[in-house]
Amino acid sequence: MKVAIVGMGNMGTALYESFGDDLIAIKRGDDFEVVKDASQIWLCVKPLQLTEVLQELKKFIREDQLVVSIVAGKKIASIKKELGTNHPVVRVMPNTPLLVGYGMSGWVCSCEVTATQKSAVKKLLMAVGEEIEFGDEGWIDKVTAISGSGPAYFFATIEALLVGANSLGFSDDEATQLVRQTFMGAAQLLKQTGKSAKELREMVTSKGGTTEAALKVLKDKRFEEIWLVAVRAAHKRCYDLGKENK
């Protein structure tokens, strides 16, 4: 199975370095004729570049070649329309931890995708993290709001906690080490113990203790409600982008 990766930005490069042997890398300006030798063609370009790429790609692509898109906001129907054929198409929403092999990808297939092609995509996505296949493309906008944008939520939370650490007198280096290792350790607890986030939170929260005092402030400030509003805003924006990109 030969895989062609179109677009060698951060995500395309990470996929190229993780997928193993028998790969074709295609940068902007390269000759697209080389895709004739590939069984899968992964589109890793920016949304504004996709139409140009598809117009070039359609000159050489065969109907039995699988097209996999990680382009945000571009729906399967739009890709098929621009190619002008009934190609098997997979749409993937990965996230940036893919760059270090800890990605989370949600994906969905068009009806033309075979069981063998699905299996091949799943294997490749597992090489860069974890994956979930969905049966309806509408879930991809929801995946975008949670795991696609999720790393930014995580980093924003760290930034806020660093401000709190600085306010207590810790230096930037001390604050960074304290917060970074705490979040990394907490993530490993969640992954390795099999306990729910609720159970692990309760393990840390003693009655009348320091953690309870902090969590009470977060609750009073409507912390959970803020997250609900935030992820719904992300979902709506992703849905709107899909309509704009039709």
Notable traits:
alpha/beta; Rossmann fold; ProC C-terminal domain-like fold; 2 domains; 7-stranded mixed beta sheet
Mean pLDDT: 95
The CATH class label of the largest domain is Alpha Beta
Total number of domains:
2
How many β-strand runs? 7
Beta-strand share of residues: 5-15%
**CATH topology-level name of the largest domain:** Rossmann fold
**What overall form do the CA principal axes indicate?**
elongated
Low-confidence stretches: none
Measured as a percent range, the helix fraction is: 40-55%
Radius of gyration: 21 Å
Question: Could you explain how this protein is built, in words?
Answer:
With 246 residues, the protein is α/β, with parallel strands linked by helices. The protein is built from ten helices and seven strands. The two termini are 31 Å apart. 28% of the residues are buried. The mean pLDDT is 95.
In short:
With 246 residues, the protein is of the alpha/beta class. It has ten helices and seven strands.
SSE order and pairing:
Blueprint (H helix, E strand, L loop, with lengths): L2 E4 L3 H9 L4 E4 L13 E4 L3 H11 L8 E4 L6 H8 L5 E5 L9 E7 L5 H12 L2 E5 L4 H11 L1 H18 L4 H22 L3 H8 L5 H11 L2 H22 L2
Helix pairs in contact: 5-10, 6-7
